[in-house]
Amino acid sequence: MLVASARAQSVPRKVVLEDIAAKVISPAYTDLDSKCRALTNAIGQLVHAPNQASLDHARQAWADAAAAANRARYFQAGPIVDREYVATFYYWKVRGSKIDSTIHEARAIDQAFLNEQGADVKGLFTLEYLLFGQAHQSPGEPKPVKTPLELLCGNDAKPRRDFLLLVGHDLESKAAQLAADWSVSGEQGTRGKFANGGQQSINLLVNQLAAAIESASENRLHFTLDLPKPLPGQLYRIEGSGSGSSLRDLIATLEGLQEVYLGAGGSGLADAVKPVNPTLDKRMREQFAATISATKVIGAPLEDAVINNRAAIQAACDKMKALEIMFKVDLTSALGVTLTFNSTDGD
């Protein structure tokens, strides 16, 4: 313990940033690339032979890709912003009727056509709709008359199958590009520039983490408790409700945040906090663990728990809010960071 403590207190901030870039952020995008490639392969099998088994396989591959995207959700800066890929992985308010009409009206389903489309008809969550359908409709959406599998079967379903595969390939291509961006070593690569950014990179990282925690707290968890009644008519407003992934992906987001703080086989942000405020570091570790544990206790997708287990959601909200405040107040003070993102909750 004394050796570990001495090491933690001696880690330069540049090394902390190097380790976070090389051992946390870069592997997160490598994993996303792998999961998106597996998703495209599963979609290819589904398109070739649409049946319940191939659909289930594609759905599981989608769930794995969504979880990987959520583990990397904390850092929406750098290449993902520069290349304008954020919406591809995180814009989830797609509309089934708009996707259906886009497929129906397409002149030719090819990359040029897809490039013309907005975020509401392509990306990760368009795949969610095509694979899972919409379990909960908004008031303006027509009720489905066919299941996702039925819509993919038959000769007249070829445009839909082609579109499904095209969106999958587009997602895979963009994930591969992000993985490549973060894999380049050297001073001029993304990792090198981040590691050499000094306090500027610390500021960016802490702001990104604080914004991610606030968004998870307010927009994905507490939001469910504020939905107006009757609740069944509002569940479509919960991210991931179509696939039942709302809780699983929220946990993945929190675990990704925790990994940046603790590190993964190297230094984490904790190694910058501990030398200046060891008590805060201990509290941060405990609060991360308590928040993730309380969120897991919810035990069911948020669209189900908001009806059947609101107390568990509230308990997780309380833990997450405490973590959010700790980040915004105590951690920023310890590391000399000024919050610059546009907070939505007034803290």
Summarize the structure.
This protein has 347 residues and is mainly alpha-helical.
Q: Which terms would index this structure?
A:
347 residues; mainly alpha; disordered N terminus; 17 helices
The proportion of residues forming helix, as a percent range, comes to 55-70%
Q: Compute the number of helices.
A: 17
| SSE pattern | HHHHHHHHHHHHHHHHH
Shape verdict = globular
Strand-helix topology:
Layout (H helix, E strand, L loop, with lengths): L1 H9 L2 H36 L3 H20 L7 H4 L3 H5 L5 H10 L5 H5 L8 H9 L15 H5 L5 H26 L6 H6 L3 H27 L20 H17 L7 H4 L4 H20 L4 H7 L1 H26 L12
Description of the molecule:
It is a single chain. The protein has 17 helices and no strands. The model is unreliable at about 1-10 (pLDDT under 50). The two termini are about 35 Å apart. Helices cover about 70% and strands about 0% of the residues. The chain is globular and about 65 Å long. It is mainly α. The protein has helices at about 1-10, 15-50, 50-70, 80, 85-90, 95-105, 110-115, 125-130, 150, 160-185, 190-195, 200-225, 245-260, 270-275, 280-295, 300-310, 310-335.
